[in-house]
Amino acid sequence: GEEEEDDFGYRLFPDRNKKPQSFLVRSLFTFHNRCQLMLRMTLETNPYAQLLLEAMKQSGCTVFNDRHFSCENCDGCVSGGFDSATSQIVLCQNNIRHQSHMNRVVTHELIHAFDHCRAHVDWFKNVKHLACSEIRAANLSGDCTLMNEIARFKFGLKGHHQTCVRDRAIRSILAVRKVSKETAEKAVDEVFDACFNDLEPFGRIPHSKTDAKRAYRDFQNRDRYNANL
């Protein structure tokens, strides 16, 4: 039969097409309350998120908690997503159960939002654009830290970080686009070097929260320096 039309990953986020629930209904679900509490903690205390929020504000894209984040139920295989049509970050309240996981998901999706803010990203028709943002998100969000890779029982020495970034970028593309693995791999490989080395707004690969704190401090100092020129 004829291949089903690509829904651009919206099948993974069924709540996207539902009418918003009333506050009373949402307050009855502990998943939603827990998601909101963890989100607030991330935005207030996580240096990865704080740097990205400041960078987006500097780029003219101020992020508001109630407007740009939505805790929803999702398909079991995803933790979050960036809906460019509404400029909203979807947080999968049924799949995010720990604060550290929330920190990574928010950071990952904020990198997509930052890319959406600063560049003309064709999310739906140009798989190379999607691949580039997925590479950056995997590289800069902490997805591929040593501890996270050990938790996945994946070990490596030289070049392991790059391997993790490549693999996770391909997985992310396959999760939201109906393309072959070969197509996803080709897109990632063609843009990998340029996008892996694009470290904005961090200026470095933040391999730990300490690195992220330094990057945030450097970003703030860079802004102060530029303001004095």
UniProtKB/TrEMBL annotation:
Keyword Protease found: yes
Tagged with keyword ATP-binding: no
Protein name listed in UniProt: Mitochondrial inner membrane protease ATP23
InterPro entries, per database record: Peptidase_M76_ATP23
UniProt entry keywords in alphabetical sequence: Hydrolase, Metal-binding, Metalloprotease, Protease
Gene Ontology terms for molecular function: metal ion binding; metalloendopeptidase activity
GO cellular component, one term: mitochondrion
Any one Pfam family match given in the protein's UniProt record, by short name: Peptidase_M76
Family membership noted in the UniProt record: Belongs to the peptidase M76 family.
GO-annotated biological processes: mitochondrial protein processing; mitochondrial proton-transporting ATP synthase complex assembly
EC number from the UniProt entry: 3.4.24.-
Signal peptide: none
